[in-house]
Design goal:
The protein is α+β, with helices and mostly antiparallel strands and 224 residues long. It contains 3 helices and 12 strands, in the order βββββββββββαβαα. Strands 1-2-3-4-5-6-7-8-9-10-11-12 form a 12-stranded antiparallel barrel. β5 and β6 form a beta hairpin. The longest helix is centred in the C-terminal third of the chain and has 15 residues. The chain is globular, with a radius of gyration of 17 Å. The two termini are 24 Å apart. The relative contact order is 0.21.
C-alpha cells in the first residue's frame, strides 16, 4: 500500500471499516476509561461536545478476551478478539458481531515480545504474508502518547495525548484525546486504541499465571 508524505493529507478517504467513518476534516475524539471498572461501558468515546460516538462492550480479563465496539445506538461495528495462544498479544478484528474468518478486517500485534515502549504492527486481512505492516503504532501507552503511522512511512494518520485532570484521577477515570487526520477511518483508529488498552491492561499476576497455564493446557504451546 503506497502513501503520500507526512505533510500531504490524503486526497481520498482511507476506509478500513466503513467510508461512513471517514471525514474530510480532522476528527477529535475523547476517550473516557474507568480505571477501576472491568465491565461494559468502561471505555467510552465521545466527540468534543460530549456526545457518545462509540462504546466498548464485552468480556474483560477472561480467557476469551472479546470486545465489541458499538455505536451510540448499540449497533455492533466490529468485534475484537485476542488470540488465545500468542506471544505477541495478537488481536483480530472482525466486521459487526462476527468472529468468522471471512469477516476478518485486520489484525494487530506487538512488534516484539519484550517492549519498553509501545510498538504495534497492524495488518489488513488481505496482507496474509505479513512481511510489511499496513499501519504502525509507536509511543508510550502509559503516558497515553501514541502516534499511528501508515505502514513503515512517516505519514501520520492519528495521534493521541492524555487529558487527565485532578478531578478525573480522583474519581478513577482515565481521559485522553485522539486526533484522527482527514479522510482516515476514525472507527478503525478507535479499534486500535481498544486493542492497545487490551494489550496493556494490568491484571493481577496470579490471574496471568492461571490464565497462561490454562491456555497452554487447552491449546498447546504459545506461538507468535
Amino acid at each position: 500500500m503506497a502513501y503520500p508524505s507526512s505533510s500531504t493529507p490524503l486526497a481520498n478517504p482511507l476506509s478500513i471499516i466503513s467510508p461512513h467513518f471517514c471525514a474530510p476534516y480532522p476528527v477529535d475524539l475523547a476517550i473516557v476509561r474507568k480505571v477501576l471498572a472491568i465491565t461494559d461501558g468502561n471505555f467510552v468515546v465521545t466527540d468534543i461536545d460530549g456526545n457518545i460516538v462509540f462504546k466498548v462492550k464485552g468480556a474483560f480479563l477472561t480467557i476469551h478476551d472479546r470486545r465489541v465496539l458499538v455505536d451510540a445506538a448499540g449497533n455492533p461495528i466490529v468485534t475484537l478478539k485476542q488470540k488465545l495462544i500468542s506471544a505477541h498479544n495478537k488481536w483480530q478484528v472482525f466486521r459487526g458481531d462476527s468472529s468468522d474468518s471471512s469477516d476478518l478486517i485486520f489484525s494487530a500485534k506487538r512488534s516484539s515480545i519484550c517492549q519498553l515502549k509501545t510498538k504495534l504492527d497492524v495488518f489488513l486481512a488481505n496482507n496474509t504474508k505479513e512481511d510489511v505492516c499496513d499501519f504502525k503504532v509507536k509511543g508510550d501507552w502509559l503516558k497515553r502518547s501514541c502516534v499511528i503511522y501508515a505502514g513503515e512511512s512517516s505519514t501520520i494518520v492519528a495521534q493521541m495525548n492524555k487529558k487527565n485532570t485532578v478531578k478525573s484521577m480522583l474519581i478513577g477515570k482515565d481521559n485522553f484525546m485522539v486526533t484522527v487526520y482527514p479522510n482516515i477511518d476514525y472507527a478503525f483508529i478507535v479499534a486500535l486504541l481498544v486493542i492497545l488498552d487490551g494489550i496493556n491492561t494490568v491484571v493481577d499476576p496470579r490471574f496471568r499465571v492461571v490464565t497462561t497455564a490454562l491456555r497452554a493446557t487447552l491449546h498447546g504451546p504459545i506461538i507468535s
